[in-house]
Structure formats: C-alpha cells, structure tokens
C-alpha cells in the first residue's frame, strides 16, 4: 500500500475525466448523439477490452467463472450509472455549468463513498466493505473519514462559488446561458443524476469478485481491476446506445456517421440550451470533416476511459480505505474541470467573491486529498519519509 501514490493516480484519473470533453470541441457539423456514441464506443467497448487483454491474464476465463449474480449486478449498476450521465445534461440546463456540476458531483461523491460501507450486507462478501462504525473506531479511520468530510465541504464551497457566479451574471447573458434556470427542477434532477452516477461505485464494489479472480489468474494487483470494467462499461454503453438511437430516430441524424455533407439542420428553439443535436454550421459550406470528427471523438472517448484506468490503480494503493477512492475521484474531477473553466475563460467577468470562493473550494479539495492520504499512511504503518523513498526509488 502506497497512499500518496494512490492519491496521485486518482488525480491523474480526475485530470482525464475533467479534460475528456475538450476534444469534442474540435468536432464540426455532427449532432451530439453522433459524436457522443462514437466516443462512447471507444470508452465503453474498445478500451476496456484492449487494455484488459494486454495487461491481465485470461480475461475471458475470468469472466466465465463469475456467478450470474455478480455479472448481473455489476452490469445493472453500470447501466444505472449510464442514466446518471444522460441526466447530467438536464442538470446543466436547469442550474448552469458551475452550480450544476458542483451539486451533482457532490451527491455523487457522498453516495458513492458512503453507501457501500454502510450497507455491506447488500454487497458481495468478496468486496472490501466495512461499516462506518468499524472504520471510525481507529485513528487512521477517523483521519480518513475527516478527509472525506473535508472533501464534501470543498465540493459545497465550489457549488456556492458557481451559484454566486450565476447570480452575478448580467440578466441578458444569464438568459443565454441558463434560459431554463429552475432551482427546484435543477436540484431534483441533480439529485437523480448524482445518485445514478454514484452507481459506478456500486458496480465497482459488486465487481470485486472479478478483480479477485483476475489476481488468482496471475494478474498483478495494480491491473486486476480492469476486467470488471468490461462488464460495467457494457452496462453504461447499453443505456447510452438506446438513448442515442432514440435521438437518431427523432432528429433524423443517423446518416451523419457516413455522410460527408450536412443534409439538414435540426430545428431548435431559441431558448434551447441542451447540447443534444447542436451542430456548428458555416453558411454555404455543408462539408463535414469526417476523419477529423472520428479522430477527435475517439480521442475524447479514450481520454474519458483513462479516468477509470487510473482509478483502478489508485484504489489498489489505498488499501483498506479504498472506500475513499470515489471521493478522491470526484474531488479531482472538480479541480481539473474548474482548471479548464479558467483556461476557457468561463469565469471571465466573475466577481472577486466568486473567484475567492472557487479558489477556497479548490484549496479545500486539495487539502482533503492530503488528509485522506495521511489517513491511509497511518494505517500502513509507514513513515512519510519511507513512502517518499518508495515513490522515487
């Protein structure tokens, strides 16, 4: 167990998750449902199989020996996680990017971190789950739980910063960005999205027997979590595939997979803020850069998958307190997505108060990762010097 290396891996995962949508900005004249499924095919189908086949032993054999119960619940929670991703867009529509992301990820972090340890009887015996009471009985556990609490506080501060920024926007700009702003609807949708997105953490817990079987097949512990992603991602792919197909039928955009020209533009209301079917169009030029679109969509999908690739490595290093991995993952996503927000000037024009709040939120999240890492360090019995020496040796 190397807790600080585990935190570092989770930060790399957060960087991947917070950055994956950037390549999509290079996609031109494709509807959202087209480039979303192209990228998703790489992240949900290709990457899980390719990396598992390359880095683990006997993938097919490991999956075959799993019980139907393990495979079903791992797939089921993967599919439920897919619903969380789909409704995340509605959260952005009703609350705006800053506030919506903070609220949704806050719920996601809380439920994904605390539910598995609080309900160990629901999850398989092979999973590493403990009750909060047992964890809190030790000093390392208390420090780790304090880190989780600090992380949730940081997410709350980041959400407050987003709310402050949205409130300070000029009314005209506010209508452009959040024409359908509704705090009540937004909170309800964000709650659903956050809880559904947290199902990925439940799927990881249910997939623990797959991980153990991979280790027994001779796979190194650091890569042993990869085979279960094949099942989890298949669940997420199923949900998103069905939704995208419905959009193809509704918007008549399925032809874009093979057409080098834009045949039609979907009609959109002036107040429409959903990214679905949004197409950048240059008047007089209906040519579609097919190769560019496929490459950028593939890059986005691969980048997205790597958040969980590093997550699998990070949770191994967290040892007994890997239940905190989900919190670390959510914190790092907010940190790096906010960083991209600054780079892309999304905070331009915000007041000093809003900037101060988001800076405080990010600082709190960074501090929480250090506290969680220190808690796992205490559990390991190693000194900080020994860990640093291990990292750089």
Describe this structure in words.
Helix 1 (3-19) crosses helix 14 and helix 2 packs antiparallel against helix 12 (226-251). Helices cover 72% and strands 0% of the residues. It is globular and about 65 Å long. The protein has helices at 3-19, 32-55, 59-64, 68-95, 97-118, 132-136, 139-168, 171-177, 183-197, 199-206, 208-216, 226-251, 290-318, 325-343, 352-380, 384-392. The chain has 393 residues and is mainly alpha-helical. It has 16 helices and no strands. It has one domain (3-262, 282-392).
Task: Set out the fold topology.
Layout: H1 3-19, H2 32-55, H3 59-64, H4 68-95, H5 97-118, H6 132-136, H7 139-168, H8 171-177, H9 183-197, H10 199-206, H11 208-216, H12 226-251, H13 290-318, H14 325-343, H15 352-380, H16 384-392
Helix pairs in contact: 1-13, 1-14, 1-15, 2-12, 2-13, 4-5, 4-9, 4-10, 4-12, 5-7, 5-9, 5-10, 5-14, 7-14, 7-15, 14-15
Gyration radius over CA: 21 Å
Largest sheet: none
SS summary, helix count: 16
> What is the percentage of strand-forming residues?
under 5%
Number of strands: 0
Shape from CA axes?
A: globular
Helix content: over 70%
> What number of domains?
1
What value does the average pLDDT take?
76
Order of helices and strands: HHHHHHHHHHHHHHHH
Enumerate the spans where pLDDT stays under 50 for 5 or more consecutive residues: 126-130, 266-275
| Alpha-carbon distance between the two ends | 15 Å
Broad structural category:
mainly alpha
